[in-house]
Amino acid sequence: MKVLVAGAGAFVGRQLVRALAPQHAVYVLTRQPSVHEQGLATAIPADLTRADVDLPLPDRYDAVVYGDSPDGGHEFPADAVDMFRVNIDSVLRLLEHAVRSGARRFVLLSTGEVYQRSDARLGEQSAVAPETFYARTKRAAEMLIEPYGVYLNIVILRLFTVYGPDQPADGIVASMMRTIRNGGRVAIEGENGGPLTPIFVTDVVDAVRALLERNPKNGVELFNVGGSETVDVASLAAQVSAAVGRPVEIARAAAGLRAGWAADSSALTRATGWTPRVMLTDGLRRTAASLGGS
Length: 294
What we know:
single chain, 7-stranded parallel sheet
């Protein structure tokens, strides 16, 4: 199978390329060419923040995985234009090319933050209410690509609190690890913060691969991808503290939301047999080791 990965230099994309390359022909759109230095994939240099640049895409391929993210971050309004171009404009450009090229599947990596916060696990039918500009661009992309389900298999994956080695500094687990290791205080809204279902990056990759390797059928599929363990922010901080080997100091807000984003991923399990394999304690230990922790 020929797979085109947009965002191969991003956190999940790097791991995905390594997982797919042994069995599949992988093409990567990336602003960071290092991911293909070991011959894992055919690199296509591309800056998806540039709407005026033609993309040198292959003539034919079977599937696209779109997981790119702006290099600058998710700050509003500083990164608003880049978020729009990468999360909406380039998604549509690549989807149009995929249809013209005869691709059978398009996988969009979205975020669980498109949902309205809840104190219970969120299913695919839960209310949608994105709060940030970033989450709104992801939701907009979901809505724009759904009509293309008449031409190919559209798969939307809403990812919940992905973490692991080499995570960007703004990820909640990586940020918490650095804060604790440097003796800072972890801020929590309310008593313990809202519920989360952190998922190790290799489990996300396994979910994407399981979906790619099914027979494609036209239509739209939506799946949550989260870990099997639910923790509140205070409990997560305690486990991160143990992984790093440093005490944690909590700064609690006087008041705050007790709701958060925790995934019910049972629909994905029913569809593919996938289940998360990396338990939180082990995943945090492996992540801490990559950052120089104990």
